[in-house]
Amino acid sequence: MRLQNKVIIVTGSCTGIGKAIAERCVAEGAQVVIHGLEPEWGEQVVAKLGTQNAVLHIEDLTLPEAPQRLVEIAIQTFGRLDALVNNAALVISSNIQTTDEAFLRKVLEVNTVAPLALIKAALPQLSQNRGSVLNIGSVNAWSGEPNLLAYSISKGALMTMTRNLGDTLHRENNVRVNQINPGWVLTENEAQRKHEQGLPEDWYKAIPNVFAPAGRILWPSEIAAAAIYWLADESGPISGQVVDLEQHPFLGRNPPKDASTLST
């Protein structure tokens, strides 16, 4: 039980990676605050985990007082707060033609500003309990796909924030801040997005080798397994680190000769 007696907020945990992280946290002995925008899905997660282990809060994180309310729910329900997982994100396609200033601000508000606001709101409790923050980024933070411009910008900013606060908050507040950058993960929303883009319902069963050497893309449970290390005391004093979780070397990769003939 690597997270015994810890209380953890996991944003965006009604589905996908966040849901998998919350489930794994409870399996490791933690109590969790489930958060998202989908009441029915969130209620299903809480029912599965048990009300003694989980509480649900539905709210848009970009609202001014939302971060503080989320922290207060953790304290009122479970008496403390030990860790924060900033997983909630707006995953949306855009390129240079479709990304105007208003669109970029909207994506940044959800993917970068809200995580910072949550860290600020949680900091007193996290500092008191020598807690930790785990930001869920994306391998797109390094440059991103052509049709993920605004999303990639926001995740690049999140990565810089992780390194900055991972140093500052560790020294000044006893709070560790780290980040994992998942690659291509088969979440419910990703499966639906690709289907809406014209791919068949079972598109994930035939991924070209250039994108998935293992023959499949990642599962949310595999990201959750990695998340536990950063939330547990066993990661010790490590802070300010960003780890890419993909099945091939994302930077400096030598693409196969036939890669140009393949499409996602």
From TrEMBL:
Superkingdom in the source lineage: Bacteria
CDD domains: SDR_c
Family of the protein in this entry: Belongs to the short-chain dehydrogenases/reductases (SDR) family.
Protein name according to UniProt: SDR family oxidoreductase
